[in-house]
Amino acid sequence: MPKRIRGIAVNFRFGPKGYPEPVDDVDALGDSIYTILSTLPGERRHRPQFGCNLKRLLFGNISRVTLVQVEVEARQAIERWEQRVIVEEISVRDEVSRIIVEVVWRPRGSLVDARRTQIPFDQAGVR
């Protein structure tokens, strides 16, 4: 049986009384993947290496090479910072001045609980 994961989600989820709710299991993992991919290294003062360089890749020409770099960068960052998941697939597609990164992942120890996290990036950053 997979180990239960408990924690507080980022962005906080508030309950009916206005207090942050604890988040169980895979919801926290999806939030963690989103946070990793949308954070530039150096943004967190006490953890300066945390994050991923995806935003920096958007200011160059968006070519097939850039899309492959985005995929490699995303996979490396998730595998480094979120070891509670196994990345099944990362797909990157280019829309008008925007890149959509879709991560198919599952919690470590689960064989059937595959999830998707989709993150749109544009010239202004994460939407």
What does it look like?
This protein has 127 residues and is an alpha+beta fold. The protein has one domain: Nuclear Transport Factor 2, Chain: A (Roll), CATH 3.10.450.40. It is 28% helix and 29% strand. It has helices spanning 25-38, 54-57, 64-81, and strands spanning 6-8, 22-24, 85-95, 98-107, 115-122, 125-126. A four-stranded antiparallel sheet has the order 3-4-5-6, with helices on one face. It has a two-stranded antiparallel sheet with strand order 1-2. The chain is globular, with a radius of gyration of 15 Å.
Question: What is the CATH class designation?
Answer: Alpha Beta
Overall CATH architecture: Roll
The ordered string of helix (H) and strand (E) elements is EEHHHEEEE
- What is the CA–CA distance across the termini? 36 Å
How do the strands line up in the largest sheet? 3-4-5-6
Q: How is the quaternary structure best described?
A: single chain
Shape: globular
CATH topology: Nuclear Transport Factor 2, Chain: A
Q: From the alpha carbons, calculate the radius of gyration and give it in angstroms.
A: 15 Å
Helix content: 25-40%
Count the strands? 6
